[in-house]
Design brief:
Length: 186
C-alpha cells in the first residue's frame, strides 16, 4: 500500500472515529416554573395514560419504557422522593420519547505534500437516528407543568440490553442533575 493511500485510509478512519464519538454524547436541557416551591415536593405518582390500549403511548417500546420508568424511579428515590401507587402526591411524572433521522457530513482533505496541499477533498455522510427523551414534572394540585428536562443523543440500534440500561441510566441521571432547581427567585 502506497504512502498516499495509507495516509488517506488513516485520515478517513480518524474522521469516522471522531464523527461516531461526537454522535454518542448526550445533550441536556431543562426549564422550570420559577414560581414553584420545589422544596414542598416530597412524593409523586406516575401520570395515568389516557388510553392504555394505545400502542407505545410514550413513544418507545414496552421494554425501553420499563427501563426508563425504573431508572426515573431509582433516580427520584436517590433524591429522597417517595413514589406512591395512588392517593395524594405532590407531583406527577411523565415522559415521552421521540426519534428523528439525521444525516451528518464530514469534509476532509485527502492529501498533502512537500509544497503544500495537493489532492482533493472528500465528503463522508453519516446517517443516524437521534432520540430525545422528555421528562415532565407536573404539580399535582395545579396540574401545571413545573419542570421539564430533556436529553438528546444518538440511538444505538445494535446495543445489548446491558448497554441500553447503561445509556438510559446516564441519560436520566444527566436530566435530573438539575432537579430540583434552587429556591424560587434564585
Amino acid at each position: 500500500m502506497g504512502h498516499a493511500v495509507r495516509s488517506r485510509t488513516v485520515a478517513a478512519a480518524f474522521v469516522a472515529a471522531l464523527a461516531m464519538a461526537g454522535c454518542s454524547s448526550f445533550s441536556y436541557n431543562h426549564d422550570f416554573d420559577p414560581g414553584v416551591d420545589f422544596s414542598k415536593y416530597k412524593s409523586y405518582v406516575w401520570i395515568e395514560i389516557a388510553d392504555p390500549a394505545t400502542p407505545h403511548p410514550r413513544g418507545v417500546n414496552e421494554l425501553i419504557e420499563k427501563r426508563i420508568a425504573a431508572t426515573i424511579d431509582e433516580t427520584l428515590a436517590s433524591k429522597g422522593y417517595t413514589k406512591r401507587q395512588e392517593g395524594p402526591a405532590d407531583f406527577v411524572v411523565n415522559f415521552v420519547g421521540t426519534t428523528q433521522e439525521k444525516i451528518d457530513f464530514s469534509t476532509y482533505y485527502t492529501g498533502w505534500g512537500y509544497y503544500g496541499w495537493y489532492g482533493g477533498t472528500q465528503v463522508q455522510a453519516y446517517q443516524y437516528t437521534e432520540g430525545t427523551l422528555i421528562i415532565d414534572i407536573l404539580d399535582a394540585h395545579t396540574k401545571g407543568l413545573s419542570w421539564r428536562g430533556t436529553v438528546t443523543g444518538t440511538l444505538e440500534p445494535t446495543a445489548t440490553p446491558e448497554q441500553r440500561n447503561a445509556r438510559i441510566a446516564t441519560a436520566v441521571a444527566g436530566v435530573f442533575q438539575r432537579f430540583p432547581p434552587g429556591p424560587p427567585g434564585s
